[in-house]
Design brief:
The protein contains 2 helices and no strands. By secondary structure, the protein is an all-alpha fold. It is rod-shaped. It starts with 8 loop residues before the first helix and ends with a helix.
Length: 119
Amino acid sequence: MNNLIETEEGILERNICIVDIIRNKNVEVDWLYKRITAALEAKKTLKQFGTLVEKGNNNMKSIEDAKIKLGEVEARKKRILDEETSCQKELAIAKDKFTKASQRNSIEKQRARRETHSY
């Protein structure tokens, strides 16, 4: 009984049956029956605890995986936002150049018309 963790539930259940048979023959073994029954209950509780610990470990792993994935997504998001900012700057520069070129073009057209009309 000292090594409850390694004791199988089936062995404890068989021992309970044996003690129950002995008890039915009017031999005083209630104390033994109670100890074996308590051992079986303790074994079941340990098994449930082990399952809960395993689930907890799985949940912690899921949390860590999600944190890693979130970090990767945030890094990609930052790269995309940086790229968007760069594209917006390029667009602003291109629009500015276009506007200046259009203004120069208009000025040159007006100058060409004046020079054409002056002759």
